[in-house]
């Protein structure tokens, strides 16, 4: 037996065996946004979680993931039927619940890729946020719309204008912050926040408005705004 | 023919010897395994089984389970680069602090069942062993309920019948208060079967049972009372949260158990007061093994026995230490400034005068003078000593123009302006920014750090015990329970001796006692003893104090002594020596507040952290287990 033949056999075995014992990778792409009436809800980075369950394969555990700051999500799945939930206490919005108080499920059938927006009811929406910079001062002007007004309505605990050097902007990630308590807001249609930014060696910054709802952990945010900064 | 007889004889012998005992011959007891009856035949044997169960008790901060469990919660800065994640993460995972060791519960249940039926044990031995095992089981359930809320309450060993259907072994979670009730009632039931011996520290005593009742009842009472402020942290089946109506009952139990212990019914425990120097006295509570009247139940260690702990190796001041190792825990300025002044008021450590000008100090320790002696007893401050040798903590020289001259290594040398030869410009203990094992907050830890020669060396280690329950905590438990029951006067009476020992000799009156005072007193007295997380959880303060927002210097300096003060990032205080020949202050010390460079995260305690995550595998195996709220 020559060396050529041995190499040939090895190559043949390697190529054939690989096919046999490997599964195909998941390739059905599920993606979309968490929305209210078609408008994406902005969230904090790595905070608001959702879960998918798939039954029929032995033990059942969640496939967990988080929504991105712009409210989007994206997963690669196998074809099949999944149940989607947002666990209780997640997000600055209401997710439908069963009469027993457990989060209700949305059934998602994957057969190839699909785009699916998740409709929720937020307590508030931040409307028309505008951020302008003048020297070291950044000012944010926006309007707050109260969406849930029935018995389960909740008050505004505070609103904050956050500034950061990267596009991750939140209470934990910021270089400057200005907070106004909810009871000090005179007019929900015209909220002003000014913040002084420290001296930074950067020609642009990111700003975002966050709204804390009393009794709800996750903040509601406005979209991240990038603006030029010169001091 | 003459040989046939011996052959016949041999055959006959083989038949008689070999055949009749066939079954016995094969049925030999193994020599390496004891039967239950053998194992429970001798008290010394039973004690060794029990010793294993003692060893498997879970402590939040143990001296033998790594220094890092002491270093979190912004009370200190972890000065080891591999552990910088503690100050760089923005939140704790939901699975942090979880425990679910039903293997341990099973072994405890088996021990109780086997010891109960053991015939060879004397009644006195049996009673004590059973009481100890029941205490250990209750203690582990207490540890579980603190972290997980209500858990399945299993009090007997479970056996699978291999029928293919394990559902009869699946138990749902008990209500949170049912676990607390179990802990309290078990301790009540066994307390009189345990010895009344204050000198017995490593095995549990009546004192330990009473101390556990007061702590458990206090926890349950405060969860009932303060749980009302976080209605989101509940489950409809009460696996998590306790009805507010039960608060008074629990506080009463906590106070009564504390009173029972304080009255001496379990033997005479007392505050440790053997040394005249107050700070040294406080540090000695945790070091003195000889007839320490304060410790009630400890996890003990013994040199040269194989059971030693390396906490001192990890945390001693590094410069001049045996094997030059240590320095990992640097208490934060947040904690240091919270120690009161001797007139019972709070104030930041004064680095500037009223006009905002820096204050120049003649020596390093002057700035900390006139404070609670527990500060010196808990923290190694700049200018103080360990093992009789001064620590070398200073950050550099400050020039007339305010610029700093410092080095990037321990004890680095540089030439100062106006001089010709290089001099040392930073302490051998640092602080050097981002240099591990130096005092990056400007402080080292003293509590539990053992000055005995050899304790800081890896080959020897330390035999200082970890105190699980001590008398001062019982007094503070009594003070809190009395305060919550509206007896502020009694609360002051319990709290004042603890404070007087620390040099705070102006007694608090009933009017001075507030919730903030209670919170503050526990924080400074019980720092680095594994209490802060559970205290903040039961008061439902954790998500307020660790709210995930970065801390400013104004946050740091304001509202000292307030229970809701933000505490998300560990700050430091660095001493600099003035180098300005023209100034009258030349050679004096100034201090600067710094946030160590490695601190980039801010602690965020989410509502889902109040009760730790129950693993998906556990819930998949037992669908009756409901998940924790807010996760």
From TrEMBL, chain B:
All residue ranges annotated as the RagB/SusD domain in the record: 293-550
InterPro entries in UniProt: SusD-like_N, SusD_RagB_dom, TPR-like_helical_dom_sf
Keyword Nucleotidyltransferase included in the entry's annotation: no
Keyword Iron attributed: no
Major location (coarse): membrane
Any one Gene Ontology cellular component term annotated for this protein: cell outer membrane
Keywords assigned: Cell outer membrane, Membrane, Signal
Ranges of residues in domain SusD-like N-terminal: 77-217
UniProt xrefs under Gene3D superfamilies: 1.25.40.390
Short name of any one Pfam family annotated for the protein: SusD-like_3
Compartments where found: Cell outer membrane
Family the entry assigns: Belongs to the SusD family.
Protein name: RagB/SusD family nutrient uptake outer membrane protein
């Amino acid at each position: 037996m020559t060396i050529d033949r041995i190499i040939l056999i090895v190559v043949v075995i390697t190529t054939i065996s690989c096919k046999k014992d490997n599964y195909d990778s998941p390739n059905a792409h599920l993606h979309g946004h968490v929305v209210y009436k078609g408008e994406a809800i902005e969230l904090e980075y790595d905070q608001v979680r959702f879960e998918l369950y798939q039954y029929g394969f032995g033990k059942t555990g969640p496939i967990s993931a988080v929504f991105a700051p712009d409210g989007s999500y994206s997963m690669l799945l196998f074809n099949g039927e999944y149940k989607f939930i947002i666990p209780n206490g997640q997000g600055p919005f209401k997710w439908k619940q069963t009469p027993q108080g457990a989060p209700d499920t949305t059934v998602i059938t994957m057969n190839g890729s699909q785009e699916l927006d998740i409709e929720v009811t937020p307590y508030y929406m931040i409307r028309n946020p505008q951020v302008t910079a003048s020297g070291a001062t950044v000012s944010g002007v926006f309007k707050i719309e109260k969406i849930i007004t029935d018995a389960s309505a909740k008050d505004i605990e505070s609103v904050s204008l956050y500034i950061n050097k990267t596009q991750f902007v939140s209470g934990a990630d910021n270089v400057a912050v200005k907070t106004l308590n909810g009871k000090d807001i005179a007019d929900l249609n015209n909220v002003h926040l000014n913040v002084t930014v420290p001296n930074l060696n950067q020609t642009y910054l990111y700003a975002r408005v966050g709204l804390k709802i009393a009794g709800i952990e996750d903040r509601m945010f406005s979209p991240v705004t990038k603006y030029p900064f010169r001091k | 023919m003459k040989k046939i007889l011996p052959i016949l004889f041999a055959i006959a012998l083989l038949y008689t010897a070999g055949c009749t005992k066939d079954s016995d011959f094969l049925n030999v007891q193994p020599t390496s395994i004891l039967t239950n009856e053998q194992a429970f035949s001798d008290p010394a044997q039973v004690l060794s089984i029990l010793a294993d169960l003692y060893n498997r008790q879970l402590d939040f901060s143990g001296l033998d389970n790594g220094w890092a469990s002491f270093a979190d919660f912004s009370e200190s800065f972890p000065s080891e680069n591999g552990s910088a994640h503690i100050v760089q993460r923005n939140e704790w995972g939901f699975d942090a602090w979880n425990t679910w060791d039903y293997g341990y519960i099973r072994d405890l249940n088996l021990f109780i069942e086997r010891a109960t039926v053991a015939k060879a044990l004397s009644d006195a031995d049996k009673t004590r062993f059973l009481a100890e095992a029941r205490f250990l089981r209750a203690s582990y359930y207490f540890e579980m309920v603190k972290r997980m809320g209500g858990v399945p309450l299993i009090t007997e060993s479970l056996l699978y019948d291999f029928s293919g259907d394990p559902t009869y072994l699946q138990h749902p979670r008990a209500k949170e208060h049912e676990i607390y009730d179990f802990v309290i009632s078990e301790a009540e039931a066994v307390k009189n079967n345990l010895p009344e011996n204050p000198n017995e520290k490593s095995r549990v005593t009546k004192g330990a049972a009473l101390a556990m009742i007061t702590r458990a009842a206090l926890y349950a009472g405060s969860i009932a009372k303060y749980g009302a402020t976080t209605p989101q942290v509940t489950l409809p089946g009460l696996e998590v949260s306790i009805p507010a109506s039960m608060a008074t009952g629990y506080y009463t139990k906590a106070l009564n158990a504390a009173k029972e212990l304080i009255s001496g019914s379990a033997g005479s425990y007392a505050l440790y007061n053997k040394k005249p120097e107050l700070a040294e006295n406080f540090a000695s509570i945790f070091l003195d093994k000889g007839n320490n009247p304060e410790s009630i139940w400890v996890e003990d260690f013994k040199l040269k026995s194989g059971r030693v702990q390396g906490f001192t190796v990890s945390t001693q001041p590094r410069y001049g230490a045996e094997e030059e190792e240590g320095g990992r825990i640097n208490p934060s300025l947040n904690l240091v400034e919270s120690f009161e002044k001797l007139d019972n008021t709070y104030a930041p450590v004064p680095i500037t005068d009223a006009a905002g000008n820096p204050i120049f100090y003649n020596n390093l320790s002057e700035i900390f003078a006139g404070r609670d002696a527990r500060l010196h007893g808990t923290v190694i401050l700049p200018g103080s000593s360990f093992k009789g040798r001064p620590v070398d903590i200073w950050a550099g020289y400050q020039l007339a123009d305010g610029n700093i001259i410092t080095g990037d290594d321990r004890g680095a040398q540089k030439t100062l302006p106006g001089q010709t030869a290089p001099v040392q410009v930073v302490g051998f203990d640092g602080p050097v920014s981002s240099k591990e094992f130096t005092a990056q907050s400007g402080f080292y830890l003293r509590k539990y750090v053992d000055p005995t020669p050899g304790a800081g060396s890896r080959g020897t280690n330390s035999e200082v015990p970890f105190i699980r329950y001590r008398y001062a905590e019982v007094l503070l438990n009594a003070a809190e329970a009395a305060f919550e029951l509206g007896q502020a006067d009694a609360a002051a009476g319990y709290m004042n001796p603890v404070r007087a020992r620390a040099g705070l000799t102006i007694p608090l009156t009933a009017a001075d006692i507030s919730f903030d005072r209670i919170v503050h007193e526990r924080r400074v007295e019980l720092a680095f003893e594994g209490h802060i997380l559970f205290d903040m959880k039961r008061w439902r303060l954790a998500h307020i104090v660790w709210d995930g927002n970065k801390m400013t210097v104004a946050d740091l300096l304001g509202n000292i002594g307030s229970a809701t003060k933000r505490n998300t990032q560990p700050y430091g205080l660095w001493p600099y020596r003035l180098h300005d020949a023209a100034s009258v202050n030349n050679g004096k010390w100034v201090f600067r507040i710094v946030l160590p460079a490695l601190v980039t995260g801010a602690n965020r305690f989410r509502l889902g952290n109040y009760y730790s995550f129950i693993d998906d595998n556990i819930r998949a195996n037992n669908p009756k287990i409901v998940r924790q709220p807010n996760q």
